[in-house]
Amino acid sequence: MENGTSNGSTGGAACCNGNGAVRGPHVAMLATPGMGHLIPLAELAKRLASRHGATATLITFASTASATQRAFLASLPPAVTSLSLPPVDLSDLPRGAAIETLMSEECARSVPALTSILLDLKRTTGGRLAAFVADLFGADSLDAARAAGVRRRCIFFPTNLHALTLMLHLPELDASVSCEFRDLPEPLRLPGCVPIPGPDILMPLQDKANPCYRWMVHHGGKYRDADAILVNSFDAVEPGPAKILRQPAADHRPVVYPIGPLIHADGREDDKDALCLEWLDRQPARSVMFVSFGSGGALPTEEMRELALGLELSGQRFLWVVRSPSDEGAVNDNYYDAESKKDPFAYLPEGFVDRVTATGVGLVVPSWAPQTKVLAHAATGGFLTHCGWNSVLESLVYGVPMVAWPLFAEQRQNAVMLSDGVGAALRVPESSKGREEIAATVREVMQGEGKGAAVRAKVAELQKAAAEGLRDGGAAATALAEVVEGWTTTGGQEEED
Ligand code: UDP
């Protein structure tokens, strides 16, 4: 590999003919920074390998070579190898540039290196390179795939059909909405979608003067260059947009395939993981509220303190992944490296950790917990989540009802869709995030009080629908089979165009 740093041999065998040569298609996949992007893309790669005999190369950016990411990549099966793009210079970007801007710039500036990598891959995989898949901030990389003559070019959208609908409508909304989205007098109504109040719309769209707004409009337009868009969602959780996006489009937008929920369920365990799981083993069934804000989310100190006191006040058991607060920077400060920089426990109310440890009512862990194993555990009965889409899907796969506490990205609109739409979560009221409100919402979900009962029933229904879709012949399995068939047959946007 001339242009990237390989983390393993590219194109490892998944499926061989009698001579030991690899058959099956090879897929190159570009993951923009963030474990929330990498994890579902890797799951897609694993599914393509196990169900369709494919091999895959996951391509990552130099800016995200964290220990967490390295450990994750090392845990992938031999059919899924990885390599890193060389670093690009981003020093001209202003300090405090939005994450979406950083990711988009890094991707656009990596197109020449990516083109060389794809040309290399074409050679080293003996003509098996059938498709290129980029995730949501990687739309510019479709140009690299085109330049390298990769026949099929797809977008993998790791979030949901609501967010995709918004992205696909962005070029026209950019032309028609003159005010800031947060100032819209009415909720935004998009085809099939739950109406989203202006302030809850995708965070990078909330300030039109910020370059990240322009980038999002750019990506929304660029998605139309793809042959297909694969979405990590399923029809039952958002039936409205699923119905619309599954129909053939008059406006030539790419075909949309809901192929989810793809979740990461089998990570390796370390000592810190064992601490959480052993603690859960000692708790009664469905008695614990798991509290976590994704791979990088953190709260401002004041909210962190109210949450601590609200959890205590709720009288419910809890397991909380605590990060140092976000006050000195953006709420997503930990994004590029999930390890908390400071001691997060130092910001909790005085005596809190000692009290909850002494009574055994709570466990607080710094920075990271084995989330899917926690959600799968019989003792877990609720999930207070930032509504990152992977977290939502994991919760639904394991049938855990949610309390929504969104922070950034598309999390606020996810919270609207989950609470006002399908009814799988209760949202802590935005205007009054005090300890009493927090305690009341936690109790409703854990005890099935008030609206909590309906949320629990809905989540059980969605858990069943998700499992059915992934079975052979289910909607998600069939959608992915259709995508792969498109990769291995000719037609569509042809090579070297
Ligand atoms: N995650 C985890 N342990 C943690 C925090 C996060 O395993 O302590 C995983 C979680 O299971 C999910 C991903 O990291 O797969 C977070 O993705 P999500 O889309 O929920 O949020 P983001 O990190 O993108 O904000």
UniProtKB/TrEMBL annotation:
GO MF annotations in UniProt: UDP-glucosyltransferase activity
PROSITE patterns cross-referenced by the UniProt entry: UDPGT
InterPro entries xrefs: UDP_glucos_trans, UDP_glycos_trans_CS
Protein's UniProt keywords contain Coiled coil: no
Top-level lineage group: Eukaryota
Enzyme class: transferase
Gene3D superfamilies (UniProt xref): Glycogen Phosphorylase B (3.40.50.2000)
Keywords, alphabetical: Glycosyltransferase, Transferase
EC id: 2.4.1.-
Record-stated family: Belongs to the UDP-glycosyltransferase family.
Listed name of the protein: Glycosyltransferase
Species of the source: Sorghum bicolor
